Structure formats: structure tokens, C-alpha cells
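Dear colleague,

Thank you for sharing your sequence with our group. We've completed the structure prediction you requested, and as agreed, I am returning the results in plain text so they can be pasted directly into your records. Please verify that the sequence below matches your submission; if there's any discrepancy, let me know and we will rerun it promptly.
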Amino acid sequence: MRCLVLLILLLLPCQLLAGGGVVMEGERCTMHIDFYSARFTAYQPNTQGNQEYCEDLPDIGLTLFVLDYLHPSLKEVPVDFRIIKNTTDQGRFAVWEDVAKLGGLQPLTLFYQAPSIEGDASLQIEYQFTEPGEYIGIVTAGHPSSEQVYRSVFPFAVGRPRYQAALLALAILGILALYGWRRQVASKRNSGVSS
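Please find the predicted C-alpha cells below.
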């Protein structure tokens, strides 16, 4: 049984463990930009309809990113949105310090939405992914009364194979079958010893 628990922990999706600025809070994805927060949702309407995603996206193609500001000050400050290819050696655990080591972001940038103030407290971005891979989203927000800049960095994958959940289920079933078989063999041995 310990092996089953260990296997489940090892096979948990990396998005639950990622070092990025998007986390699951209850049933919602929340982006933290220092003291700011926003509800984060990604959609792939052409392939997945209204299905909501927190980080990893199953398909290439049109993707909508929506940030609904939870912190009231966010609608008073400029916010930008950038997507780069993840070339850090940290993969799913990349943070701003890892991105900063890459040097200037301009040559790495696949998409950039210039800073804008969204009075309706919602930032919406459309981007067309043309190839699967590892990416990093970077959201930058200013401070309402100083020159301070805050960032949220969230690594994510696009176009990953969907067989991961099936492999996890198969592994769990295999371990449970092995556990049941071992218990049955032990039970037969014990009943043979007592007669």
C-alpha cells in the first residue's frame, strides 16, 4: 500500500507542484503577482469548447487567456502579458530569477501585449500556438503609487499527449492487482500452516 501512495505522489501532474504564479485555490486558478491576485483561465475554443484550463493546454491552436482581477488596484495600473519559449534549465519549476538569467526577453518573446490599464478589471489575450512544447507566461504589473514592478511567472505545456492519465490509472490498477494477489497468496499460506 505504501508503494501505491508513493507512486501516486510521484505521478501527480507537475502543475500541482510547479513553481509558477498560477495555483489552484479551491476550484479556481489564481494568479499571484506579488500582493495582487487575479482569477486565471485559459480556453482553447476551437478544439476544447468552453473547457477551462489552469496551466497545461492539450492542443496547439487558438488559445484565450483571461485574467479577471481580484485585487481592486490592478484595474488602476498598467499590466502586460508575455509568452516565451521555456529555454530555462528549470522546466516546470522556472521562476523569475531563471527567466532573468536568459538575458533580454525580446529575442525570446513569441507574444507580447503592451502594458494597458483595464478599467473593467479583465485582461483578455488571444494567441495561436503553432507547435507543442514548454512555454512560460509572464505577467507584469506596476504599483499604483511608485515605480515598483511586480511579476508572475507561470510555466506551462502545450500539446502534451493525453495518455498520462491513462498511464496513471493503469499503474494504480496494476499495483492494486499485485497487492490483492500478494494478500491472497499470504492468506493461502496462513490457512495451510494452521491445518
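Summary note from our side: The first helix runs from residue 2 to 11.

Kind regards,
the structure core
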